[in-house]
Design goal:
Structural class: alpha+beta
Helix content: 55-70%
Distance between the termini: 35 Å
Number of helices: 19
Shape: globular
C-alpha cells in the first residue's frame, strides 16, 4: 500500500475513536502530535487509540493530543482535516458542523496564559521545517568552507541557507496576523519594514535604525498591532471605502509605530535576550545547564516550554544558533537512560520491555513522548530520575560553554541524535560534536544508574516485575495506562 494511503487509513482509523467528526472542534499539529479540540471527552476510546500501530501514545491537555511522531503527523493531519471538511449529508450532520464552528470560535476567544503561549507557538512552529532545512545546509556549507572543498558551490549554499533567515521577520508577521485573526499579507507587509534596507536612513529617538533591528520579536509586535488597527478600521470605515482605506491605514499606522517605536524597543529586548543567554552560560554554565536540563521535561508537561520558541528563534537570528537547545536536549538523554534501566529492572514484565524496545529508537532520535507517557511517567520515580539524567547532561554541556566552547543548534525542533547535523559553535565542528555527544552520554549514564539504583521502591518492583499473564493487572503495562499528569 502506498504511504499516502497509509496516512489516509490512519486518519480514518483515528476519527471514529475520538467521537467522529461531530466531536471535533479544532485540529492542529506540532512536530509530533495531532492536537484535537473535543466537545465531549467521554466519547474518546483511549485504549483503542493506543492500540493503533501508528499511535505512539496520547496526552490530555487543553487539547487531546495523539502522538504520531515527526513526519507522520504532518502527513496524517491533512488527511484527518479532509475527513472533517467532507460535505454534510444529513440535517443532523449540518447541525453538528455548525456547533463545531461555534465551539471553535468560542475556543479562539479564550485567553488563559497557556492558550496565549500556544498561540505564540502556532506562529513559530510552521517555520521549523525551513529552519531545519536551512540549518542543515548552513552546516554543510561550513564543513565545505573549512575543508576548502567545492569553492564555487559555497557561495550558492550560503545564499540558500541565509535567504530564509534574512526574511524570517516577514514570515513571523504573516503567521502572527493569521493566528490573531487579521489579514496575513498585511501582517507580512508591516513586518517587512523591519528587514527593508531603507530603514538605515531613518533616525528614531536619536538612534539610526539598521535593517533587521528588532528581529522576530519586532515582527511579532508589528503584526499584532496591524491586526488591532485592521480590526478597528473594519468597525469604523464605511464598507464602500473599506477595500482602499483599511489596508492603507493598517500599513501606515502600524508601519510608523514600528519604525519609530517597536524596532527600537524590540531591538533592545532582542539584544538583552542574547546577552543574557551568553552571560548565563559564560558565568553559570554548569549550574545553569543542570537546572535547564533537569527542568525541561516538567516544563514540557506543563506546556510552558512553548515560551522558549521565540527565544530560540531570536538567538538563531542574532548569532546563527541557539545555545539553549543542546542543553535542553539532554532531557531526552536522561529519558533514554532511565528507560534502559527500567528494561533491566523489570525482566519479567514482557509488556513494558516490549514498549521500551519499540520506543527506544525514536527516543534516541529525540522523540521522547513514547518513553515519557509509555514508561517513566506512569511508573513515577523513573520520571524523576530521568530528569536527574537530563540535569547532569545539561550541566556537562553548560560546563564547556562556561569554559569558552560554545555549543549551539542552527534550528529548533530536533534533539537527540537528530540534532548532530544542526550543531554549530565557536571552536570548530569536531569539538562541538564531541561536547554534545559527551552530554548525551552523560545523560544516558546518569539517567540509567539513577533509575537502576533509586528509581524503584520494593513495592513498585513487586507490582511491576511480573509477567502480565501471572497476575499483573492491565495497569501494569504503562503503555496502556492513562497519563496521570497533564501536559
Amino acid at each position: 500500500m502506498a504511504p499516502e494511503k497509509n496516512h489516509a487509513a490512519t486518519a480514518a482509523e483515528i476519527l471514529p475513536l475520538v467521537g467522529g467528526a461531530a466531536n471535533i472542534s479544532s485540529v492542529a499539529h506540532c512536530m509530533t502530535r495531532l492536537r484535537l479540540g473535543l466537545h465531549d471527552r467521554s466519547l474518546v476510546q483511549d485504549e483503542a487509540l493506543k492500540a493503533l500501530p501508528a499511535v505512539l501514545g496520547v496526552v490530555e491537555d487543553d487539547t487531546y493530543q495523539i502522538v504520531l511522531g515527526p513526519g507522520t503527523v504532518a502527513r496524517v493531519t491533512p488527511e484527518f482535516e479532509a475527513l472533517l471538511t467532507a460535505p454534510p449529508r444529513t440535517a443532523s450532520d449540518l447541525t453538528a458542523q455548525g456547533a463545531a464552528i461555534k465551539a471553535a470560535q468560542q475556543a479562539r476567544n479564550a485567553t488563559p496564559f497557556k492558550l496565549f503561549l500556544r498561540r505564540i507557538a502556532n506562529i513559530f512552529v510552521p517555520l521549523i521545517p525551513a529552519l531545519i532545512g536551512c540549518g542543515i545546509i548552513a552546516g554543510l556549507n561550513g564543513l565545505l568552507t573549512n575543508l576548502g572543498w567545492l569553492p564555487s558551490v559555497v557561495p550558492a549554499l550560503a545564499a540558500i541557507a541565509s535567504g530564509f533567515m534574512s526574511l524570517i521577520a516577514v514570515f513571523v508577521g504573516y503567521n502572527t496576523a493569521k493566528e490573531f485573526g487579521g489579514t496575513p499579507i498585511l501582517g507580512g507587509a508591516v513586518a517587512a519594514i523591519i528587514v527593508y534596507a531603507g530603514v538605515a536612513k531613518v533616525t528614531a529617538f536619536g538612534v539610526t535604525l539598521s535593517p533587521g533591528q528588532g528581529g522576530v520579536l519586532g515582527a511579532l509586535g508589528a503584526a499584532a498591532l496591524a491586526v488591532y488597527v485592521e480590526k478597528w478600521c473594519r468597525r469604523w470605515v464605511p464598507e464602500s471605502l473599506d477595500v482602499l482605506v483599511t489596508p492603507a491605514l493598517t500599513v501606515l499606522v502600524s508601519g510608523l509605530v514600528t519604525i519609530f517605536g517597536l524596532m527600537v524597543v524590540a531591538g533592545e529586548v532582542s539584544t538583552a535576550i542574547g546577552d543574557f543567554a551568553n552571560w548565563l552560560l559564560a558565568y553559570g554554565g554548569a549550574g545553569a545547564g543542570f537546572v535547564l536540563g533537569g527542568l525541561f521535561l516538567p516544563l514540557v508537561m506543563l506546556g510552558l516550554h512553548q515560551a522558549l520558541i521565540p527565544i530560540h528563534t531570536t538567538l538563531i537570528e542574532q548569532q546563527g544558533y541557539t545555545v539553549l537547545l543542546p542543553i535542553l536536549a539532554m532531557a531526552g538523554a536522561g529519558q533514554v537512560g532511565a528507560a534502559t534501566a527500567v528494561y533491566f529492572r523489570l525482566p519479567h514484565n514482557t509488556a513494558i520491555r516490549a514498549t521500551i524496545r519499540s520506543a527506544l529508537p525514536t527516543g534516541l532520535l529525540g522523540v521522547g513522548e513514547p518513553l515519557i507517557y509509555g514508561v517513566s511517567l506512569p511508573l513515577g520515580r523513573p520520571f524523576v530520575t530521568a530528569c536527574v539524567g537530563g540535569a547532569f547532561g545539561g550541566g556537562f554541556v553548560g560546563l564547556f560553554n562556561m569554559l569558552g566552547d560554545t555549543v549551539g543548534s542552527t534550528a529548533i525542533g530536533p534533539s537527540g541524535w537528530a540534532l548532530f547535523p544542526l550543531l554549530d559553535g565557536n571552536r570548530g565542528l569536531g569539538g562541538t560534536v564531541a561536547i554534545y555527544a559527551g552530554g548525551l552520554l552523560t545523560g544516558y549514564l546518569v539517567g540509567f544508574f539513577a533509575t537502576y539504583f533509586f528509581g524503584f521502591s520494593r513495592q513498585l518492583l513487586a507490582d511491576f516485575n511480573v509477567a502480565p499473564e501471572h497476575g499483573a493487572t492491565a495497569s501494569a503495562d504503562p503503555a496502556k495506562a492513562p497519563a496521570t499528569t497533564r501536559v
